[in-house]
Amino acid sequence: MPAPRTLAELEADVLRDLELTAHPRAPWLEPKTSGGAPVLDCLIIGGGQCGIAVAFALKRDRVDNILVLDRADYGREGPWVTYARMHTLRSWKNQTGPDLKISALTYQAWHEAQFGAAHFEALRWIPKELWNDYLLWFRRVTGIPVRNGVTAGRISPARTDDGLPCLSVETSEGPILARKVVMATGQEGAGRWWMPDFVEALPKPLRAHASEEIDFAALRGRVVAVLGAGASAFDNAATALEAGAAEVHLFCRRAEPMIIQPYRWLTFAGFLRHMGEMPDEWRWRFMSYILGLREGFPQDTYNRVMAFPNFTMHVGRPWTGARAEGGRAVLETARGDFTADYAICGTGVRMDPASVPELAGCAHNIADWGDRYTPPAEEANERLARFPYLAPDYAFAEKRAGETPWIRDIHLFGIGTSLSFGPAGSSINAMSIAVPRLTAGITRGLFEADLPRLHAELRAYAIPQVTLDLARLAAE
Questions:
Q1: 315 pairs with which residues across the strands?
Q2: Cys staple from 105: which of 37, 99, 159, 172, with CB 3.0 to 4.6 Å?
Q3: Predicted model pTM
Q4: Does the pLDDT of residue 47 top 50, yes or no?
């Protein structure tokens, strides 16, 4: 049996694979300035899995003048070691993702180099901490430029010194100029974490959203109530139980919990590659059904809470109000009040561009699905109608043409893409198809804007590929 490969050997394979597949190699973009300041070809906001995958794909297309920003410290990008409270990823261990189908860059190759092929074979699911370690290795070995600890803010229009449109992005370190901006900010890209107003009105020591930092150790011996019945809600309930909560009660609005995960069904090439190309009625028909079902929870997640006798799941019992009494949260339901020491909302996100700092200058004119498509009455869903209606290259579209034409250069790659493209910006499984589509849109825009320069360069191109022997030319 061959000896296990080392990480150093794998990294040598990565460099060889990238070199062997580097065609076309010719540089085709020239540096730009605006007011004398440098202009990036693309700024990517978000250094998690989607952001680094987009950066990698752009570098493969010789778009090298790029930068990735992330507000988190190094190693804390994305949810994996912060608010992701499951033990493992929910995707298959042999999925491909940021690697874009380069075998030496896959998670499996990295895992086997670290722990051996037998260890990977015995693995059921990928531990989330190992996935986080893999992403950090991926960005290092591919040379992706990431600047941590930088918060992005308002995006506004600008111009390069040669007259091309570009964007100015306010950041905590000063403005950054870029011809294209990708918002790879996951769940929050076009909206905000959401909980019912009456829960949000409770004193902060009594409640939290599942996306927040929660001191679970402080819940030891306490009664905890969780709203929601998706995987995230169960993860938070399990974490509270494992931290020693006296009781954990999970409240599900539906009379029957969601036990089907439709994302398992749609993971095939036809859907992932072509859903975004279909007529609006079919895109809405498929995705409104899928998103209307909400997220299911896997068996392992359910088993995790059911291991505790002090866990109770309440079905068909939504919260209708809340108040604080005696330092506790009283949660109102149709079946009477329920009193808890702490309430956690696993209620996901709502699309709301006006709440996104980067979009403060254009949120009023970002088209959503309600602006573009009216479904049959039986398919109507006001929550889903607020999803942004994206252009084929994932760019924001205008609600009223001509008011903010510059938003065509802001590309979304997060959960907000779901109605337009399926799980394109929120799924590891979709990356190998979705990322090349997005980056092709970016390079198309860069190419189109540079057509006059490129045409002039073509006309001026005069590098001979043959040396003629003039002595042997017979001229008439």
A1: 252
A2: 99
A3: 0.94
A4: yes
Give the model confidence (pLDDT) of 404-413 as tens digits.
Answer: 999 999 999 9
Long-range contacts for 336-340 (Cβ within 8 Å, ≥24 apart)? 338/225, 338/249, 338/251, 339/223, 340/222, 340/223, 340/224, 340/225, 340/249
Cis? peptide before 24, omega within 30° of 0: yes
- Tell me which DSSP letter residue 377 carries: G
**Residue 100, phi-psi category: left (phi > 0), alpha (psi -120 to 50), beta (remainder):** left
Tell me, what amino acid is at 201? Answer: A
Separation of alpha carbons 337 and 292, rounded Å: 28
pLDDT by residue (tens digit) across 417-458? 999 999 888 789 899 999 999 999 999 999 999 999 999 999
Please report how many Cα atoms fall inside a 13 Å half-sphere around the Cα of residue 9, on the Cβ side: 8
Output the CA–CA distances (angstroms, integers) from residue 31 to 37, 162, 309, 355, 384, in the order listed.
Answer: 11, 11, 63, 33, 41
Closest Cα to residue 144, out of 74, 224, 203? 74
Residue with tokens 């370190």: 173
Question: Which are the contacts of 30, defined by CB distance < 8 A and separation ≥ 6?
Answer: 450, 453
Q: Which amino acid is at 354?
A: A
- What SS3 state is found at 89? coil
Which residues fall within 8 angstroms of residue 308, CB to CB, at 6 or more apart?
A: 241, 248
How many CA atoms are closer than 13 Å to the CA of 290, on its beta-carbon side?
21
233 CB contacts (<8 Å, ≥6 apart)? 210, 226, 227, 250, 297, 344, 346
CB within 8 A of 125, min separation 6: which ones? Answer: 87, 88, 89, 90, 93, 300
Long-range contacts of 300-308 (CB under 8 A, 24+ apart): 300/87, 300/88, 300/125, 301/86, 301/231, 301/234, 301/235, 301/238, 302/234, 304/87, 304/234, 304/235, 304/238, 305/234, 305/237, 305/238, 305/241, 305/248, 305/250, 308/241, 308/248
Would you state the structure tokens that stand for residue 469, as one six-digit string? Answer: 């022997």
Q: Which residue, among 247, 218, 246, 212, has the nearest Cα to 232 in the 3D structure?
A: 212
Of 424, 428, 430, 393, nearest to 138 (Cα)? 428
CA contacts within 13 A on the Cβ side of 273: 5
CB 431 within 8 A of CB 96: yes
Strand, helix or coil for residue 374: coil
Give the 3-state secondary structure of residue 115: helix
